[in-house]
Amino acid sequence: MKVESLSLDREALESYLSSLYEGQVRVFNVRELRDGQDQDRLKEFGYGSPLLIEFTCDDQEERAVLHTMSPDSFGHERSSDRARSLLLDRATFNALPRHVRSLDVGAFTSGGELLSLGEAEEFFHLTQYAPGYPYVRDLQRLAVSDRLSPDDEAQAIALADYLVQIHALKKSKPVLYRRRIRDLLGHGEGITGMLDGYPPDFALAPTSHLEEIERQCVTWRWRIKGLDHRLSQVHGDFHPWNVLLQEDGGFMLLDRSRGAWGEPADDVSAMTINYLLFSLRQRGEMTGPFCRLYDLFWARYLEESGDDEVLTVVQPFYAWRALVVAHPVWYPDLASTVREALFRFVERVLATERFEPGRVADYLA
After folding, report:
1. CB atoms within 10 A of CB 328
2. Number of domains comprising the chain
3. What is the distance, to the nearest Å, from the Cα of residue 64 to the centroid of all Cα atoms in its chain?
4. Same-domain check for residues 116 and 249
5. Strand 232-233 to 114-115 pairing
6. Which residues contact 59 (CB under 8 A, 6 or more apart)?
7. Taking a C-beta distance cutoff of 8 angstroms, is the pair 195, 323 a contact?
8. Phi first, then psi: what are they for 249, rounded to 5°?
9. Running along the chain, 365 residues long, what does each successive block of 10 average in pLDDT?
10. Which residue from 23, 65, 83, 348 lies 20 to 30 Å from 201 (Cα-Cα)?
């Protein structure tokens, strides 16, 4: 069974859900969730489309989301790669505050049945359904209106506070920190995976330029991989597409990635690079509402966490995130001027021993 052409047999799905929920299940609707939660076309490359499943169990209405992964060249080439990611999701989703709950992980057989893993060809991950809309939609609104409200500022502060909260939980296990820093470079979704994914004839980033970026990132790996006292609870992919804002003013998170423990700079850079990206797309420089959100987020995080050391660690994480958002595969519609500014940012950030958030405009200019 190929994920790209996945079709669910209703009887098989009902049988699986009946076993999971220990009741009589009748499925009355299955549809792709993407149009309901994320209509943004900026990020066109990603994983398999999640399916919203609506059903009754003993006459009680329920909803769940079925996730699959599609093969790609960023560390998910093999079925076992995709299985690893989904099993890691299952192991970590329920341990993080405000994250959607994992309900089960299972597999499809060659006959299209949903059952245990013995005969599995592809894997899926069933999670709790969370209502809301992705935070990126607020950023898209700001890009059009150019008007920042107190609610927008409060949201950025709330997200920074959340990171302070989860990063406060530390763990003493040096091997996990070294693994996280090693994966930052060597994983298919990490720095070398991104660099390998750039077209060989990409005019804005010739091969010699990408090679030099990789050399600098290797130097950074050896500089920071021994800082295992920094090992913290993390989300791992804390960006605006993975934050669902809700009617009560709260939020839920999606798609925790790469394990439960890591470097706090990972989460901080993943969110703030998007303020930078949207400002570049809107104005060509770091000014206006997105600059304000960037400044607020960094100031709040530094003040509440007391983690001044993060400014000496974030550089390779920012390089990674900038390489992602500048990537022509992941973000195909960016103007060349935006990509050029992102590459300047990578070069200058890697060249500084202490990152200064207040100098972000200088890093881009």
Report:
1. 16
2. 2
3. 21
4. no
5. unpaired
6. none
7. yes
8. 90, -5
9. 60 92 93 62 55 93 92 74 88 94 88 65 87 97 95 98 98 93 93 94 91 98 97 97 95 91 97 98 95 98 98 98 94 94 97 97 93
10. 348
